[in-house]
Structure formats: structure tokens, C-alpha cells
């Protein structure tokens, strides 16, 4: 007889658990129905990929192989993938950017600097449907630039000079990619003054003149050689850069070379 109250209690607990589960499922179904009342835009990523070649800032563009804007130059990119099951939300936006970079250029993110730039969501930016795009900029070392190849739905990929194309405006890019390119250019021009991104565009070992040239190409202005050298040597004192073996042959005399070490941790 003493087992009866326990059994009854267990049945009551089980009944309450089933009721809670059904209530939670009903709430989830109702929440989903409410969400489905709203328009569901597509989410994409676009990549502004820069390198420096022949003392010129260049951007990677792909020629679209499919409509809309078939045959137009465009930024590499694509849609963020959803999961195959209803309870699988798919890939993260950062993961989508890394995947598109590899698929459309052949470059792995481990060899390329990649940073989120801005979100573009103006209605009508894509003639097919509502698309919100998260843009990224990437910096490719000059030694890796020749390895780029077209992939995905692109029929061609090529580096385009920013100086020879009016910073991309003369190319009539697909979608709103001219606007995205302008935003990325403004970002790296501002960021080069207070961050380490210039080191992403020089060889692994570099001279002071080479680093100064990267700053000048990005900013579109000339730096005083003496002032830049003093700024550079302060980074040596701080341990951000360190001397490297060998010298770089220049038009005047062999130049010392250095290596970027990163910021020391405190």
C-alpha cells in the first residue's frame, strides 16, 4: 500500500510533463506562424578584396555569368546558407564570407585578412527579391594575388586598378557594388592610420620604403620619408616589428628588412 501514493505522484508528474511539452510545442508553432506573417528577406555576403601591385591599389572583381547583370563586373559574394532541416539555422554570416572567399577566389581565409565592413539593406538593391547583404573587406598579400581564380557562378575574375577606374565608378558594377566599394575604400583609408592593416599588404619581410609605399597607395598621398621612418622605428622599440635577416635591393642602396611581430600582450 505505501507504493500507491508514489505511483500516483509519478503519474501526476508525467502528466504535467506531457502537458508542458504540448504547451511548449503549441507556443513554438504559434510563434512560427507569427514570424511567417512577415516578409523573409534573403541574406547575402559581399567581399571587397584588395591587394597592392606595381604601387597601385587594386580590387578583385568577378564577371557575372548569370542574370541579373549577366556580363557585368561585380564583387565576389553569395547567399548565406540555411540548414536542411527546420531546426537547423545554417551557417554563420562570418562562415558564409569565408566560404564565398574560398569558392569565388580560391583563397583560404587563413592566408587573407578578412573583416566585416557594413550591412547594406536598401529596398530594391536586387531586382529579383529583397536581399540584405553583409559586406566584408579582405586584404591579400601581393604574393598571393596571382593565385586568384574565378569560381562559383563567375565567368571571370580579375584585379582592377582603383586609380585607373575612378575608384571603380567607371566600371558600372552590378547591384549597389559601387557603393559598397566606396565604403570599403573609405574604411581602409581611415583604418591604416591607427591599425596594423598595412602589414597585410607587404611581404612577410619588408623594408621601411615598402611599408611607406603601402600607406601612400592606400591614402593617395605622399608621406615625408623622415617622419615616417621615425614613426616606424617607434614600432621597433615597442616590439611591434623586429629586424629580419637579409636586405632588400633598392634603386639606391640595400635596405634593412623587418618582420611584423604583432602587439605584445601585457
Name a few traits of the molecule.
266 residues, alpha+beta, Nucleoside Triphosphate Pyrophosphohydrolase, Arc Repressor Mutant, subunit A, 3 domains, 7-stranded mixed sheet
Describe it for me?
By secondary structure, the chain is of the alpha+beta class. The protein has 3 domains: 38 residues; 150 residues, Nucleoside Triphosphate Pyrophosphohydrolase, CATH 3.90.79.10; 64 residues, Arc Repressor Mutant, subunit A (Orthogonal Bundle), CATH 1.10.10.10. 32% of the residues lie in helices and 25% in strands. Strands 1, 2, 3, 4, 5, 6 and 7 form a 7-stranded mixed sheet that branches. Strands 8-10-9 form a 3-stranded antiparallel sheet. It is elongated, with a radius of gyration of 26 Å.
Write the layout of secondary structure elements.
Blueprint: H1 3-35, E1 42-53, E2 56-64, E3 73-74, E4 77-79, H2 93-105, E5 113-120, E6 131-139, E7 154-161, H3 177-191, E8 205-206, H4 208-219, H5 225-237, E9 241-248, E10 255-260
Parallel strand pairs: 1-6
Antiparallel strand pairs: 1-2, 1-4, 2-3, 2-7, 5-6, 8-10, 9-10
Output mean pLDDT: 85
Question: Which class best fits the helix and strand makeup?
Answer: alpha+beta
**Count the strands?**
10
- Spell the H/E element sequence: HEEEEHEEEHEHHEE
Number of domains: 3
The amount of helix comes to 25-40%
Radius of gyration: 26 Å
Q: Determine the strand fraction and express it as a percent band.
A: 25-35%
- Our count of helices gives 5
